[in-house]
Amino acid sequence: MTFAVALREGDEPGRVAIDGGGRAHVALRRGGAVLTLDLTSGAVLARREVCAAPRGVAWSAERGDVYVACAGGELVAMPPAGGAPTRTTRLDLDLRDVVPMGDRLLVTRLRSAETLVVDTTGAVTTRVAMTAPTGTAPGVARRAVPSPAGGAWVLHQRAGDAPVQVTSTGYYRAATPSLECAGTDGVTRPGLTWVRPPLPMVTLPDIPSAALAVDVAVDANATRVAVAVPGALGATTAFGEAPVTQLRVFSTTQTSRCLAVDATAQPSDGEVVAVAFAASRGLVAQTRAPAALFLADAGVTVALGAPLRDDPGHRLFHTNPTGFVACATCHVEGEDDGRVWTFAPASPRRTPYLRGGILGTEPFHWAGDLADIDALVREVMVRGMRAPAPDAAGVQALARWVDALPSRAAPAVAPDAVARGAALFRDPAVGCAGCHDGPHLTNGQTVDVGTGGSFQVPPLRGLAWHAPYLHNGCAATLRERFSACGGGDQHGHTSQLSAAQLDDLAAYLASL
């Protein structure tokens, strides 16, 4: 039985949790709310405002509440049957998923892949830093799901920590020696870690031949873990490549240094975007374009009845049939991975943030050396990522898709501080608005502001979400942008401002 549920424009449904009373709680990522549905009748029981950007949602049987993790750092508790939230605890920015573990909660952070252990009072008792094999650094916790054996399985990325050589073989061939397992020598690799504090983490080897992995599920016995890999090498047949595995299943007790894929049936069409183990159906994979459920154990496809919606721009951004990196690998959710890369022989470069519109901010890249979207595709996708060259229509589809990514709502900032900071920003004696003007708050010029060379004036929309700052990531916070690494009075004139005024200016920037 299916039901139609009316949503508001821009709601963007995301994570869902089902409580013990047969109710589904859906995080509306841009709607700032959680929608509670009766699974028997399809009725909307409640729409509750929780935060500007809800991401993860889970029901805790031990605590009896539904918990929502928000990008703005809020952890919200609310009764499953309806009613206003009962507690909002402020943690760190960039929360992603929440997983109950007894009477505690495990809360992941997206870019850092850090896991916070939260007790019944809302206090963070432990911060668990992800481990990674030698020569790599952990980051980007895309998905965390509970393990029947306790704790959470976290699907995340591992990036090579050596300078990246941009050569004829692309920058997925890093300057570090190739890892010993086939298909894992890209500059980034998806990985799986079982986080179960206070016990040691269990880290599986890198997932091979995957430009991107987006979802994970573990079976009821905690012996098999499945991964959705829309960015599988060779998975996009539109470019004439032979399709390979898009649904990966691994043993959680893996002992080999190289991860081996269990024999698993594959969907014949569509990108695998979600996976689950269902008690009565076994392993289930969801595909997009076409929208369907694939029952892997039975080899059966169930059409979801939605029209075919193959968006070429979305597909180009999320897949790469001939390389180990897709656009979405580093530009997580159309934003960034928070990472500072060193592309030899250049100095460190911060992954640019893409949301809020890119057309009209040309030229591209920190050095302003790419005149337009065609140059960007040739240099980054084709030369760097070793992706097939899209035709003119494909380039325009990609540009339209990226340009349409909406800005994320700013986190809560003190209004009085924002007003004072806005006045400082526009004050000619401070000089910020001289370069950061127009709809994207950039004049599109490449200038030397005392930070080590000439760099593009970046757009300022969504600043709160993409620390660290400046081309080399030297400022961990907006306030640190006004420290020595920010270029001093060559980069606006702020030496005459008091500490309180700089705090106000940082508050205004966070509100953009």
Offer a few descriptive terms.
single chain; 512 residues; mainly beta; four-stranded antiparallel sheet; 28 strands; 12% helix; 29% strand; globular
Instruction: State which percent range the strand residues make up.
Output: 25-35%
**Helix fraction bin:** 10-25%
The structure class reads mainly beta
> What is the number of strand segments?
28
Roughly how many Å apart are the termini? 44 Å
Question: Nearest-angstrom radius of gyration?
Answer: 23 Å
Query: Runs with pLDDT <50, length 5+?
Result: 235-243
Topology:
Blueprint: E1 13-18, E2 23-28, E3 33-38, E4 44-49, E5 54-59, E6 66-70, E7 74-78, E8 87-90, E9 95-101, E10 104-109, E11 115-118, E12 124-128, E13 136-146, E14 152-160, E15 164-165, E16 188-195, E17 202-203, E18 215-218, E19 224-228, E20 247-251, E21 271-278, E22 282-288, E23 292-295, E24 300-303, H1 312-318, H2 327-330, E25 340-344, E26 348-350, H3 373-384, H4 392-403, H5 415-426, E27 446-448, E28 454-456, H6 499-510
Parallel strand pairs: 15-25
Antiparallel strand pairs: 1-2, 2-3, 3-4, 5-6, 6-7, 7-8, 9-10, 10-11, 11-12, 13-14, 14-16, 16-17, 18-19, 19-20, 21-22, 22-23, 23-24, 25-26, 27-28
Helix pairs in contact: 1-4, 5-6
Describe it for me?
12% of the residues lie in helices and 29% in strands. The chain has 512 residues and is mostly beta strands. Strands 1-2-3-4 form a 4-stranded antiparallel beta sheet, with no helix packed on it. The two termini are 44 Å apart.
